[in-house]
Amino acid sequence: MLEFWYEFASTYSYPAAMRIETLAADKGVAVAWRPFIVGPLFHEQQGLNDSPFNAFPVKGEYMWRDLERVCDAEGLPLRHPSQFPRNSLLAARVAICGLEDGWTPAFSRAVYQANFVDDQDIGSPDVLAPLIASVGAGPEHVLAAAQSDPIKALLKDHVRQAKERGLFGAPSFLTADGELFWGNDRLEQALDWAARHQSREHA
Fold first, then answer.
1. CATH code of the domain containing 42
2. Percent of the chain, pLDDT > 90?
3. Suppose 3 and one of 91, 151, 156, 174 were both cysteines; which one would form an S-S bond, judging by CB atoms 3.0 to 4.6 Å apart?
4. The pTM is what?
């Protein structure tokens, strides 16, 4: 089992979300999708109220060029969003709604497509509604549930868990034995570790 902690506004979470299921299936590793928001962690741990890539422009400039290279190598389309970072709170709550019914991975990939390819406002219910419908769920019902106290509490709990487990950014990968890997470029390493841990458990 590998926990995949991701944030919809996170640039490097985009290629990770598009790659993880195929790579994990090849390794025989199950993936637990864990949508959360990193803003509270950035604020608490680093005193930031914005993305580090905006707070430090030279870092941001490098990141966008690097992401272009990463996406090009993976055959993924990429368009620099006209607003960055976008408000991802509602999308994260919707993703939480889908965990029980199993449509969270497909919905999450659709949100990344909307944000980093189609340049759509993923904070808008009008943008999210067709994405919810595309995974076979009812947009009105899901959007109402996403604004309910239980779903809001679940997302807050994800943020709390992330903090307790030592996460400081997204994407992050956490193995069953508590090993933490950070960044899209650590996905393969995380899966290798998880697969080895599984084989030791079954030995």
1. 3.40.30.10
2. 83
3. 174
4. 0.93
